Amino acid sequence: MLAPRSLRKAAVPPSLLSDPSPGSLQPTRLAVHVNAAGSSCSAYLASGCRVYKIEIAMEGEMLSKGKESLLIPINAEVISSSVVDRCPHRSEIQSVVLAEGEGDGCLILGTVDSYGHLIVSRLDTVADGPPIQYHLVIVVSEKEVGLGYVAVARELCKCIDIYDQDIHVRSLRTLWYPSSFSFAQCMPQVNESGSMLAIAEGSQLSIWDLRTSNNGGCIHRISGPIGGIIYSLCSSPSGPIAVGGTDRTVTIYDPRRWSALSRWVGCSKYEITGLSFSSVDESFIYVQGVDYEITCGLWKGNERAFSFRGDSNWLGFSKCANTDVVAGWCESGSVFVADVRQDCLSVIGPTLLQF
């Protein structure tokens, strides 16, 4: 069982960023990273042609709850704020991705603008490394893949390009416009990690094998809601794949049979534009709606655990790779950061006494 440890609200300094640019429907302009000690959280925000970084204090347990398990935020201190000078874009940045690189204290930051120019930079906490620039559209970096692949979605071209760093490997032609995709982290059909790609295109979920050329690489298709659109997709390390969109329902698919394991109907008040499995307990999932609410719940039992709301619509939604630190960035300039841990009482279980 998951239990929230704290919910903090930090304001972006007006001197750093006063009026954020609007962005797109799917809020992907936020990336967060927690330091090794867990005392602070770094939030990377993209607005206009620049990327901004704020350091938020995370020490101590501060939690207040309202009705229906709604978390009430407590104001947090902004330790430092700065402009990231590694992203010289010429148009509005649409997406930000953050991943851990090789070595301690090394982060890989990828940003893409509306012209389709992508800049990948290395952010070292000890030494500064030279930025590396590619001209792609969207980058999704999976450090668990091991094959070094980068997937690039070209929505209007109905195409997913696969790159090995800056070398083009192959292209996957989709039937509909791709809105979200993810490398499947665990597939029972293959032994090689990172060779399977799950793509949300229109109302369908398609599975692609990067090692085969039969049928263009597509090995399976699953039809979703009739007349609906899948906006978000994510995969868990154990295999299940979650999708959500205009039907306001989270559907979990089993990769062994390609059938629905569970459907959490009505888990969001509006369209679902963000999903992420919990790193602490994979039976829980975080759901981000298009409005200003993020919900955590048990997808097997369709049970809501807790939720928190921003003070305006989301501009960004992100979860740390290996920890359950979930953040949302609002139009007002506020950043909400929730720190979630395993409930110790649920792990220990009830205590029995006999005489």
Automatic annotation (TrEMBL):
Signal peptide: none
Region (Disordered): 1-23
Bias (Low complexity) ranges: 13-23
PANTHER family membership: OS01G0867200 PROTEIN, WD40 REPEAT-CONTAINING PROTEIN
Protein name: Anaphase-promoting complex subunit 4 WD40 domain-containing protein
